[in-house]
Amino acid sequence: MTKEQKDNLFVLIKSLSKSEKRQFKLYVGRLGVNEDSKFLTLFNILEKLSVYDESVILKKGIVKKQQLSNLKAHLYKQILISLRLNPSHQDVRIQIREQLDFATILYHKGLYKQSLKILEKAKAVAIAHEEKNVAYEIVDLEKVIESQYITRSLSSRADELSIQAKELSQQNVLASKLSNLSLQLYGLFLKTGYVKNDKETKRIVKYFDARMPKYDINELGFREKLWLYKAYLWYSFLTHDFLSCYKYATKWVNLFYENKDMITLNPVFFLRGNHYLLEALFYLRHYDKFKESLERLESITKESWFPVDDNLEGLAFLFIYNNKFNLHFMEGSFEEGLPLVDEVLSKLKDFDDRIDEHHIMVFYYKIASMYFGAGENKKCIFYLDKIISNKSLQMREDLLCFARILNLVAHYESGLDYHLDVLIKSTYKFLIKMEDLYEVQKEFIKFLRGLGDIYPNEVRNEFIKLHKKLKEFEDDPYQSRAFLYLDIISWLESKIQSRPIGLVIRNKFHENLMKHKAH
């Protein structure tokens, strides 16, 4: 990792827009004494640097080495205060918190009536926007004030606040249980990928049932429903139930379309819901709905009312471009998809400090697959090597596994088979360390290990035998997932028919399209 990525202050300064930098300087300059302040000088130095270099700062003589960390911490805090004051960052949550802060100050000054008036308004906004955690905090402060500010209606007011606190507490506990379950399932998914047998399925079902709290769907608000759908979605993904994935991702997305204000308040969840909807449609091969949902998502992110910030731009790029790749994979339009590669690589540089390594590697796998489909095997190998040689990578085992298998296939295809034996051995060693390999992977490795003993004129027959074996797994719920990472069946058919893989997939795509239209 580069130094500038490690220094948080430097990354923060580099993420600021021109208007945010201008506002920070205005904010610092409000008091004349700040004009020559050390932290503003440090800001100006860091703003001009292209790479973080501590020696350059120390040469300027503004501070001694042992004082630098304190000065950096102070500057970091001042930038955050300035950003908080920026109108573009004034969302409803910040406004509610600000009102709660104001009410707390008034309470400490003994101005109870004024404090309660602000709290009442803030609470109404918080409940309307499903911000129930802060609403509970507001009710808590109201109870404290009401116990000191004696009014004639205190008895009815005390009951009212107690009931409200109890209701909010119950809703928050339910939301917390559902969000915990959703996060735990997501963690399991990242660690192990999809279930591979009945034993794993039973374990996940037991895990899910034990943690799913009781609920009445009619009593759930937006927030509780959102966490409920997320939990069911991850459960469905883990257990290969892609129809259920589609069902709950659709409920998730429709929840936002039915509550449009929530899109602007929770844009990250809106984007993620759409991504999972597209993922489910990709697995189900529902091409028309996939294309329509992708176009709808892209058009909404370009609407003037859709929120814009660094995080959202990074996520929108991640989800939209991942699914643009998937669209080409469904169509078999690999050559037409190649211009996406340069676009993605360019954008990955722009979002360098906002997209984690795991997602960058997923992009590399998709780029490699695009080149493989287009018959550019050496470029495919180049991007797979970035995944395989990354020793620090914490990502899904199944993706690492298929990167290695695709690497073998690409080497075979490109004629780079002079060290294929070594590659097969290293891949085999890697795969046997993994628990419960897909049968598809086992059969494929067995086939590749035996390739060296086959005469060239017998290879086609071996392809036919392997094709027949793998076709048996195509409808197996535990094994079919393997074909989504790497369409081995289509590759074998391309070898048997002596046609490019892109053409084989394209023909299948058009046949499926005709079937869907016939139905």
What do these coordinates show?
The structure is a single chain. The chain is an all-alpha fold and 519 residues long. It is built from 28 helices and no strands. The protein has helices spanning 3-6, 8-15, 18-28, 38-48, 54-59, 65-85, 92-108, 112-128, 132-146, 154-192, 198-211, 222-238, 242-258, 261-265, 267-284, 287-301, 310-331, 334-337, 339-350, 357-373, 377-388, 397-413, 420-433, 439-450, 459-471, 482-485, 488-497, 501-518. Residues 1-5 have low confidence and may be disordered.
Count of DSSP H/I helices: 28
Largest sheet: none
Helix content: over 70%
Structural class: mainly alpha
The SSE order reads HHHHHHHHHHHHHHHHHHHHHHHHHHHH
Distance between the termini: 53 Å
The total count of strands amounts to 0
